[in-house]
Design brief:
- This protein is of the alpha/beta class.
- The protein has 2 domains: 159 residues, Beta Barrel (Lyase, Ornithine Decarboxylase, Chain A, domain 1); 251 residues, Alpha-Beta Barrel (TIM Barrel), CATH 3.20.20.10.
- 29% of the residues lie in helices and 24% in strands.
- Strands 4, 14, 15, 16, 17, 18, 19, 20 and 21 form a 9-stranded mixed β-sheet that branches. It has an 8-stranded parallel β-barrel with strand order 5-6-7-8-9-11-12-13, surrounded by 5 helices. It has a 3-stranded antiparallel β-sheet with strand order 1-2-3.
- Helix 8 runs parallel beside helix 9.
- The longest helix has 20 residues.
- The mean pLDDT is 95.
- It binds ligand LLP.
- The site of ligand LLP has 22 residues, from helix 10.
Length: 437
């Protein structure tokens, strides 16, 4: 599953003990395994090799430029959702030919950047956006490639949180599928646009491969409708949504998804079509942990609390979606290695609420979690934090964003320094002048 493992009673990332990472870089710190990240990308690509997709890693999951570059070097493209993410992909050295841009509310400036760099595809989400893109294309003297993002009205399975369900009727994403053929024709009639694809992203995470099969069926019916109107669709972008194992064995494997998807698209690919995927979580989640430290233990009524130095500003998923993240001390008492990490059943666990330092009652990372006893100063690892961890951090309560460290075997490299108090105030002008621009 990943390169985080307990050996000699302590947690390692590849050949580096996390104890040493904490000593050197402090906590809280995001720690990524280069080999897990690359391995996941390579194995994902292998699972789908019969349809030779362009795999655009979704930068919203993990956007540090070092890591985007690492994936880019493996051949990955990047799925972006803002001018900021497009900037990151370009800084990382990713070829614009492998960059796509989605987003329901792109600004004119964001579209203009995409047009100027002639990126692989702009995934448009409304009639008005198509009109704006056409105007910008005219002004720039370019012919951008676009895909119509459609809402196929498919309910994912019940484990997909409501907050990340994106393709049922009435949500803000995409164009209702029954209006998409007309919009494709309108775009094709504009000499400044090159409509070439249909984009669909059903939700995140999707645990049932059959949901993708259903989406493909609807997209293929739409493609037939578009063909009947005399236009050709050459790209199908199926988005992301492939799950990660937050608990071991909790998600189907990539082969299960490939089995549901590939046979349905092989004909399209044989006919010259290009398939695009935008996976984020499935590649990155288990490639990173958040390394934190216990500050205090306390009792609240009947409950045992550990207060750690990472809260909802450092990892928001539990507070925001009630998400489960496995966590465990880095050097557990009595060598209590968790069963899910090749340990034996552990006795003497304590039921802890794990909370952060932020002034919100929702600042919980876990409630009533059975963990080995911990004391102040102990390190704790929050697993499966590589996706939507660092990218969703904030400065609420003027908390500082964590450092990010990349491990390659026995080497630990700082790839983003911890924020400082000066960073917090750097953009705020203290001399009475108004900000410009
Ligand atoms: N493509 C599009 C158009 C998307 O909207 C998303 C995610 C992805 C690709 C990547 O999805 P993935 O493969 O990572 O599941 N913050 C939430 C997840 C929000 C996902 C938003 N869109 C979380 O922490 O679970």
């Amino acid at each position: 599953m990943d390169e985080f493992s307990y050996r000699d009673g302590t947690l390692w990332c590849e050949q580096t003990p996390l104890r040493e990472v904490a000593e050197k870089f402090g906590t809280p710190t995001y720690v990524y395994s280069a080999s897990t990240l690359v391995d996941h990308y390579v194995r994902f690509a292998k699972a789908f090799e019969s349809i030779n997709p362009l795999i655009c890693f979704s930068a919203k999951a993990l956007s540090n430029v070092h890591l985007l570059r690492l994936l880019g070097e493996q051949g990955a493209g990047i799925d972006t959702v803002s001018g900021g993410e497009l900037h990151r992909a370009l800084v990382a050295g990713v070829d614009p030919e492998r960059i796509v841009l989605a987003g329901v509310g792109k600004s004119a400036d964001e579209l203009r950047e995409a047009v100027r760099h002639d990126i692989r595809c702009v995934n448009v989400e409304s009639e008005e956006e198509v009109a704006l893109l056409a105007r910008i294309a005219r002004e720039e003297g370019r012919r951008p490639r676009l895909a119509i993002r459609v809402n196929p009205d498919i309910a994912p399975d019940l484990r997909t949180p409501a907050q990340t369900t994106t393709a049922i009727r009435g949500v803000k994403f995409g164009v209702d599928i029954e209006r998409a053929a007309e919009l494709f024709s309108a775009a094709a009639a504009d000499g400044h646009l090159r409509p070439e694809g249909i984009h669909v992203h059903i939700g995140s995470p999707i645990f049932d491969p059959r949901v993708y099969a259903m989406a493909i069926e609807r997209v293929q019916a739409l493609i037939a409708e578009i063909a009947a109107a005399g236009h050709e669709v050459t790209t199908i972008n199926l988005g992301g949504g492939f799950p990660a194992e937050y608990a071991e064995g909790s998600a189907p494997g990539w082969d299960d998804f490939a089995e549901a998807i590939c046979p349905r698209l092989e004909g399209f690919v044989r006919g010259g079509g290009q398939v695009i995927f935008e996976p984020g979580r499935t590649i990155a989640a288990n490639a990173g942990i958040l390394l934190a430290a216990v500050r205090y233990r306390k009792q609240a009524g009947e409950r045992e609390l550990v207060v750690i130095d990472a809260g909802m500003t450092h990892i928001v998923r539990a507070a925001m979606y009630d998400s489960y993240h496995f966590m465990w001390p880095v050097t557990p008492v009595n060598g209590a290695i968790p069963q899910s990490r090749d340990g034996r059943p552990v006795d003497d666990l304590v039921s802890y609420d794990v909370v952060g330092p932020v002034c919100e009652s929702s600042d919980y990372l876990a409630k009533g979690r059975a963990l080995p006893a911990m004391v102040s100063g102990d390190l704790i690892a929050i697993f499966t934090a590589g996706a939507y961890g660092m990218t969703m951090t904030s400065n609420y309560n003027s908390q500082l964003r964590p450092a990010e460290v990349l491990i390659r075997s026995d080497r630990a490299k700082l790839i983003r320094r911890r924020e400082t108090y000066d960073d917090l105030t750097a953009l705020e002008l203290l001399d009475g002048t108004e900000p410009t621009g």
